[in-house]
Amino acid sequence: MPDDFERMWGDLAPVGRAVSSGGYFRQPFTTPERELAAWFVEQCEARRLRVETDAFGNVVGWWDGGAGPAVLTGSHLDSVLDGGAYDGPLGVVSALAAIDLMRSRGVVPARPVGVSVFVEEEGSRFGLACLGSRLATGATSWETARELRDREGVRLGDVVEGGTSALLADVGTFVELHVEQGRDLVDRGAAVGVASKIWPHGRYRFDFTGSANHAGTTRMEDRQDPMLTYAMTALAANKQARLAGQRATFGRIEVEPNGTNAVPSKVTAWLDARCSSDDALVGLVEVVSRQAAERAERDGTAVEVTAESVSGSVAFDPDLAARVAADHEGPDWPVIPTQAGHDAGILSAAGIPTAMLFVRNPTGVSHSPAEHAEVADCLVGVSALADTLERLTR
Amino acid sequence: MPDDFERMWGDLAPVGRAVSSGGYFRQPFTTPERELAAWFVEQCEARRLRVETDAFGNVVGWWDGGAGPAVLTGSHLDSVLDGGAYDGPLGVVSALAAIDLMRSRGVVPARPVGVSVFVEEEGSRFGLACLGSRLATGATSWETARELRDREGVRLGDVVEGGTSALLADVGTFVELHVEQGRDLVDRGAAVGVASKIWPHGRYRFDFTGSANHAGTTRMEDRQDPMLTYAMTALAANKQARLAGQRATFGRIEVEPNGTNAVPSKVTAWLDARCSSDDALVGLVEVVSRQAAERAERDGTAVEVTAESVSGSVAFDPDLAARVAADHEGPDWPVIPTQAGHDAGILSAAGIPTAMLFVRNPTGVSHSPAEHAEVADCLVGVSALADTLERLTR
């Protein structure tokens, strides 16, 4: 017998949870994330969904029947470092629960319905967000991806087999349900909403190089200290984004040699930047890079900026969004943009008509142990997803 | 047969050397540093020096004979992370070479002479500089020290036995030879110099706490981002030290969760501060802490400052310094201050008359793979140390 939403949610709660913070460490191809993947296969089998995997670790559980093209729904099970419980798993659990709900209503879809789990959506291990969906759609080639390395130097090519994917061959529509990562639905008093677009987003590695030296004996004026160049750049990025109503974050840094009594030789830091338009993103990164270079000149250091990944603006299929938002009982669901990247954005960019459903998040906090959604809202989400799938598979 | 200076130097060159940077990783009680410690015992035995160890891992090789109080010389064999070859080992190798030189001259000291190696001088593993000499003098108690933990959480008490030390019981004078860590001797055109004093020095841990959140969806104005508070503090520390002619460095940082797409929940950074007087050090740390607190208020974050170690100003015995600087053939050696901490400072503060000899460093660079001294200058250093020991043991 398949479990209901709350039972499934309880299954996942302890997996990869850090006792100290209450946050989750479910990095791709590590034990907790593999445990979740195995759990997903069990849940598919318990529901007699046919399990199909690809060479990258992506999985779909198929409710076969009817004639294609198929309707796919799902999300991901990996987390950022010390992340929340909802980002990803809510979409997977809700998809399984929506199938249970459709079956309990006696729905017989006229098309195949699949529940998907894409690997490494967060990019927290190999650095490229939406890695699984990029590989499944061909947006990123395996030749490129297999050389990606994690922080310990492990190659992606040594972790998964790699090759090709046929998972999306017969997919006509994709629907991803996700916890909201802001407070738009709180402001609008709605339990669920529909995505209009995803802001363009890039990750840029800033390599600041200077000269290691003794922190005591080296006169301040004799230093080439890359930490100073970094510090000014982090403040500049924040200020520029604030002034322009965009987003810029330096949340990750690596320092060499990272010793208390040594001026660093190198500081590497990653800029996460997201803007309301592609042009605004280019402009923001340009101005931050220029300010970094100017400060490097003053500090006697050097800075090199490498775009590790850039995703253009994604506008979801407007007709589909309008239909999902309106074609059900009760008031329309609000249609809102998001600043977060999603596998749905990759599938949409690959030409698959795609929609996203959001579930209200009382604090708007995400990528944090404090991420939350009320059970009542989650159940509204399951019902909304079941309604949407039912209509799309008629 | 004991080796000469260059032969000994060649023995040490490959131990703990990183191929990529050419720097040294000789952290206390790790394989490379233990290899050096074993090498030192071999060298003592080859010279028929009686090896005495204490419960903390400090070692002295004794050239017994005559009546106490003894004259001790030596330095340390550990390095900072990715450090240079000279800081520490030069003093140990020069001490052994000086004994060879004294013996070749037929010197028979009227007092015992010891060659010492103190553990963890750099504080690069357990965070407390001059740990071995602090324990040997009782400046730090074992009850306190045994709870110190390295970055992996390993307790010092689980690495060394601990207890008491009798190594210094009969020591009347200490002389440490060290590579210079600035360019005073270059400016003065001298191969060797004598220390007048050590600047006061402190290490302060700054814990900046904020709120983890999604780097894309969280509006800039809704963030409590501790990275910003840190960045302003690093710039403020540099500016204050520059204006006051002192030293302040943030060279070590740890970020949680340190993910590209997450606003950090916590940034921990260490301030290394050194000043020409105790009052100036207190003043510098106060103003940096106040600026950090003011910025934290603006950022919605919090900052807590913890002094992990503070060493007051050390004035070496002025009569001994004058005697060492003048009582030899040729022109007097210059007497200069240093901003670097040394075991010599700890022994001096413990009431043991102490002197330091410096060997010229062409670039002044230290705590870096680029740290250097010419062999000719090193040999002048060996000769100066032998002369000094000979006069002190008459």
UniProtKB/TrEMBL annotation, chains A, B:
Pfam families: Peptidase_M20 (PF01546). Keywords: Hydrolase. Signal peptide: none annotated. InterPro entries: Amidase_Cbmase (IPR010158), Bact_exopeptidase_dim_dom (IPR036264), Peptidase_M20 (IPR002933). Gene3D superfamilies: 3.30.70.360, Zn peptidases. The keyword DNA damage does not apply. Belongs to the peptidase M20 family. This is Allantoate amidohydrolase.
